[in-house]
């Protein structure tokens, strides 16, 4: 990505308008005890206010601004995510309509004690996202089942969702085939295995403590014997197939498309729907993802306008001024990628934008490039897994059918919080040299 040297606080203003208006409205309504406060203002409307502000405040002709905005909307990462949303919605709808969710939930509850559901989901999500390199893929695969498990087991739904999110971000951060890992290692000029080693020493303690916390707090207040629950193993097959295909490294579009077809064939064979109702179910799944689709498309355009107007570079310039030594250089790298991720809501893009800057800072202040690569990946994943308008949060909460708000979920994202804490400890005590000797 070509560096933009233009720096302007005005470039940030439209983005701040979107974030403050969206979060501010939700917080205000929450304080006034409005049910589902953060869902009262449609997020695409909030981001549209930021876009209007960008067209008013930024220099250039209307045509130039439109071109920049549409370039952002049409960026490959944005379009890829939007298509995944649609396919994920269609798969979830089809699998549910043919009884797949109920069968999978009942199967799990027959063999897994309810007190182990939350840590179990964290581990499974971590395994899938590590194997596939995508947190979104793990969330799409597990979230519908997780919601059903919470409903039937009595385990807290927000805690179950937080476990899925934490495990998904664990794998996203560590996987050697993750786009964040690839971006971080390439921009810093290090091997993936070297970055993985540094990263592992920070992530494992955070994951272990998270699992312990989920074991302690993840059991329902009253453990009820649910008895033997009926299920059809055939109807579990679509989920198993999706997991196996995802872990095998198959393209995510193919995984979800084949998942829809497998669920559809089983549903037709069992008489759960006809060809017409199958088609309507797929379309219903598309419609369920409309808000996420629009928000991602519009925020992609706003993010590109913000970057071109110098908003991201303004953040970079300000943070570079506070760097005075090795430790502050590491913190500066973390701040840069964190704030950029909050601005563009895409951790891979945040790493790419800051990669060359981080490499220069590392060279100037003698920061091990393996460490700078790990820091870029960790900080971006921490915040990507917490921002309310990020793809991961949007997809996860969409499967919960608006039963959980982002502000309820964020305090329970123990893995992301602990990962940040252990990273700061890592920086404070300069543990890179000790890792080199292990």
UniProtKB/TrEMBL annotation:
<dbReference type="InterPro" id="IPR052180">
    <property type="entry name" value="NhaC_Na-H+_Antiporter"/>
</dbReference>
<protein>
    <submittedName>
        <fullName>Na+/H+ antiporter NhaC family protein</fullName>
    </submittedName>
</protein>
<feature type="domain" description="Na+/H+ antiporter NhaC-like C-terminal">
    <location>
        <begin position="33"/>
        <end position="218"/>
    </location>
</feature>
<feature type="transmembrane region" description="Helical">
    <location>
        <begin position="37"/>
        <end position="58"/>
    </location>
</feature>
<keyword id="KW-1003">Cell membrane</keyword>
<dbReference type="GO" id="GO:0005886">
    <property type="term" value="C:plasma membrane"/>
</dbReference>
<feature type="transmembrane region" description="Helical">
    <location>
        <begin position="413"/>
        <end position="431"/>
    </location>
</feature>
<keyword id="KW-0472">Membrane</keyword>
<dbReference type="GO" id="GO:0015297">
    <property type="term" value="F:antiporter activity"/>
</dbReference>
<feature type="transmembrane region" description="Helical">
    <location>
        <begin position="198"/>
        <end position="219"/>
    </location>
</feature>
<keyword id="KW-1133">Transmembrane helix</keyword>
<feature type="transmembrane region" description="Helical">
    <location>
        <begin position="374"/>
        <end position="401"/>
    </location>
</feature>
<feature type="transmembrane region" description="Helical">
    <location>
        <begin position="331"/>
        <end position="353"/>
    </location>
</feature>
<dbReference type="Pfam" id="PF03553">
    <property type="entry name" value="Na_H_antiporter"/>
</dbReference>
<dbReference type="InterPro" id="IPR018461">
    <property type="entry name" value="Na/H_Antiport_NhaC-like_C"/>
</dbReference>
<feature type="transmembrane region" description="Helical">
    <location>
        <begin position="12"/>
        <end position="31"/>
    </location>
</feature>
<keyword id="KW-0050">Antiport</keyword>
<feature type="transmembrane region" description="Helical">
    <location>
        <begin position="292"/>
        <end position="316"/>
    </location>
</feature>
<feature type="transmembrane region" description="Helical">
    <location>
        <begin position="156"/>
        <end position="177"/>
    </location>
</feature>
<comment type="similarity">
    <text>Belongs to the NhaC Na(+)/H(+) (TC 2.A.35) antiporter family.</text>
</comment>
<keyword id="KW-0812">Transmembrane</keyword>
<feature type="domain" description="Na+/H+ antiporter NhaC-like C-terminal">
    <location>
        <begin position="240"/>
        <end position="427"/>
    </location>
</feature>
<feature type="transmembrane region" description="Helical">
    <location>
        <begin position="239"/>
        <end position="271"/>
    </location>
</feature>
<keyword id="KW-0813">Transport</keyword>
């Amino acid at each position: 990505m070509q560096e933009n040297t233009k720096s302007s606080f005005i470039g940030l203003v439209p983005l701040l308008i979107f974030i403050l208006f969206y979060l501010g409205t939700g917080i205000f309504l929450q304080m006034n005890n409005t049910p589902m406060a953060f869902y009262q203002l449609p997020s695409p409307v909030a981001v549209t206010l930021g876009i209007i502000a960008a067209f008013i405040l930024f220099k250039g002709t209307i045509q130039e601004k439109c071109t920049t905005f549409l370039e952002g909307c049409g960026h490959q990462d944005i379009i890829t995510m939007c298509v995944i949303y649609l396919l994920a919605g269609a798969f979830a709808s089809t699998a549910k309509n043919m009884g797949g969710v109920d069968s999978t939930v009942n199967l799990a509850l027959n063999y897994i004690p309810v007190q182990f559901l939350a840590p179990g989901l964290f581990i499974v999500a971590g395994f899938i996202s590590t194997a596939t390199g995508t947190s979104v893929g793990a969330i799409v695969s597990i979230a519908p089942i997780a919601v059903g498990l919470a409903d039937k087991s009595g385990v807290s739904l927000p805690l179950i969702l937080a476990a899925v999110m934490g495990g998904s971000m664990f794998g996203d951060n560590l996987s050697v085939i993750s786009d964040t890992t690839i971006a971080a290692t390439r921009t810093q000029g290090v091997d993936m295995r070297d970055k993985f080693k540094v990263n592992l020493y920070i992530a494992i303690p955070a994951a272990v403590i998270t699992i312990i916390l989920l074991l302690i707090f993840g059991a329902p207040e009253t453990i009820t014997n649910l008895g033997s629950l009926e299920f059809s193993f055939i109807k579990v097959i679509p989920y198993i197939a999706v997991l196996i295909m995802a872990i095998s490294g198959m393209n995510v579009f193919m995984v979800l498309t084949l998942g829809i077809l497998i669920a559809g064939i089983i549903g037709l064979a069992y008489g759960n729907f006809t060809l017409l109702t199958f088609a309507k179910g797929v379309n219903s799944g598309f419609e369920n993802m409309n808000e996420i689709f629009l928000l991602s498309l519009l925020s992609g355009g706003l993010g590109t306008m913000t970057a071109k107007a110098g908003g991201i570079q303004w953040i970079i310039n300000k943070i570079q001024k506070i760097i005075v030594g090795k430790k502050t250089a590491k913190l500066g790298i973390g701040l840069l990628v964190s704030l950029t991720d909050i601005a563009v809501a895409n951790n891979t893009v945040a790493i790419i934008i800051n990669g060359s800057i981080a490499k220069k800072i590392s060279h100037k202040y003698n920061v091990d490039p393996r460490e700078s690569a790990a820091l870029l990946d960790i900080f971006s994943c921490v915040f990507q897994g917490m921002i309310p308008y990020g793809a991961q949060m949007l997809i996860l909460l969409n499967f919960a059918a608006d039963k959980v708000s982002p502000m309820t979920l964020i305090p329970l994202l123990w893995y992301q919080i602990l990962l940040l804490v252990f990273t700061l400890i890592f920086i404070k005590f300069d543990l890179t040299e000790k890792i080199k000797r292990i």
